[in-house]
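Notes from the 1:1 (GR / supervisor)

We went over the backlog. Supervisor wanted to see one worked example end to end before approving the batch request, so GR pasted a single chain during the call. The sequence is below; no edits were made to it. Supervisor asked that the structure be written out right there so they could see what the output format looks like.
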Amino acid sequence: MLARASLSLLAAPLVALSALAAPASAQTTWFVDKTAPGPGTGTATDPYTRIQIAIDAPTTLDGDEVLVRTGDYVETLDFAGKTLRIAPASPTDQVTVNPTSLGRAVTVASGEGPGTTIEGIRLRSGFAPVGAGVLVDGATLRLVDCEIEECRASLDGGGVAARNGGTVELESCVLTGNTATRHGGGVSGPGVRVVGGSIVGNTAGTDTQPGDGGGAIDAVIEDCSVIGNRATRSGAGVARCSVLGSLLQGNRVDAASGVSVVRGGGMIDSDAFDTRISASAAYGADVEGFGVARSTLTSCVVTGHWAFKVPVRGVATFECDLVRCEIRDNFATHAEAAGIGMYGGTARDCFISTNFAPTFTPSVPDGPTRGTVGGGAAAAQLERCLVINNRARHGASLFSCDADRCTIVRCVGESSVAAAAHAPSGSPDRSRLRSCIVAGLTVQIGSVTNQVTGIEPGSMVDAQWCVVEDGWPGTGNLAGDPLLTRVESGDVFLLPGSPAIDAGDPGAPADPDGSRADMGIFPFDPAKCGGPWVTNCGNTVAEASGRASLSGNGALTVTMTQQVPGEVAVPILALASGERIVPELFSICVRGPLTQGTPLAVAPDGTLAWTATPAELAATGALVGDRLFIQLYLPTGGPSQASGRLSHLVETTLCP
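Structure output shown during the call:
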């Protein structure tokens, strides 16, 4: 009995194994050719004449593929619950599904599973309430190398839509010229993922119907170009999306009638990583976030937004949270612009640079004559940020902001930091600075010297434990030069002896070396001396690398190529106390005490490479942290010049 029972227990696994070993039903390939005589049996020699006939055929089963020959197929497709692959019959076949007035191009709404694929086919001129090009409802679809164009949704999802748990992935697809009366001109739905490809020239909304997400709404966008889309309320590029490694450029909101505020020309209510948002626009109403609104950005660049003739809060960003982002080269022309780089929100470890607005006194018929405020940021919270080269009338760097461990330098306007006296309605009435540096207040613009007040008199600015170059009352504040490596080039590391070292807020977290917090964005690092920088001065190109070090560690090298072999060059060195003059050809670009280094000859291959020795550097009298100017002089003119030649000017800071 035991033996008989054991055999019976083995029987079930053996049956299962035999079932696994049985061969699966073979995949079948069916063919479609609209020029065939029809009706056809789906073979290569007797193809079907319509794609839907191939799908509906009882012999077409899950896992089969339908290969289509060249043609413009005027029909709508419904996968009818079958998991199929539909593609051109060959790489040279060009297939278009064009339903014209028949309805939607493709419907996948009967539980189709993974493996349902359309590849290499153009879908155009579909029309439906939702998902005029493609609707995936409670099913799964993969689109590869497809073009979806000029489809029109009377509600949402002009090109592609997913709903009720449906998922659709678009790989290397192009969506262009699709429209939705409400939202998601290109794609719509939380189940939509676009990888690669482009979303170009799609529209959400109409002149009378507000629309969001011209390119995409509620989707995942990865490694994609989202360009030239339009919406009539917000998020012309994307709305409520997750965006990774993409380009959003030239997207524009034009307000529908009745819309009083438009937001997010490029993006709204989204998360983005490693993405560039540029040249967005928003018009027809007051603007909040010409570029990006109410989004979270990490390692992104927001640049090139020009706000013309509209009141705007936040040309680049409005109420966004920024981490390791660059906010640069954004502009406003309206006198009521506030926060050219950012308005509201937070910024951590960010670079906010060259955001400009007019600095003149405006005359606004319907409002107070305040003028522009917050070239870098307004009404925002910043931590460990560099705010440099911004422009506005009041608070050219920051207006009504909280800033912690920021370096705020080089701006154009009446003041670098301001608050209260010129605040737009609804703005906070103060600025708060902790462990910050406010410096570089003299800016040369051509032949004009612009002198800026560090903190605007009369402003409600609470600054403590800060270096403010021209002074400001407050606990722990210092006045004078903070000794930064090279403010004019954006190199703002602390030099040895800087008063900002170990002088920040005693209650702030310690620096990485365990010492008391320094002021400014970068804690003092003895190894970070600054430079070298090359200035186009003299008449011969030079390159520089390494560190000017008294110990010889990482030695500075100046290199010139295509010189006369054997010719002898003389290094010329000067302390930065020598005045740097306007660059001129055939001239030494500094005045003051000069020293000569050891002459050296051009190598047989025409390369001249001078490496500074500790003795040559010490001979200048420079101390650690001092600035040095260096040029190489070749006394003879060479084969095509009658006089000597001077290299471009190299500037560097002397390291230990």
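Supervisor's comment: The chain has three helices and 73 strands.
Batch request approved.
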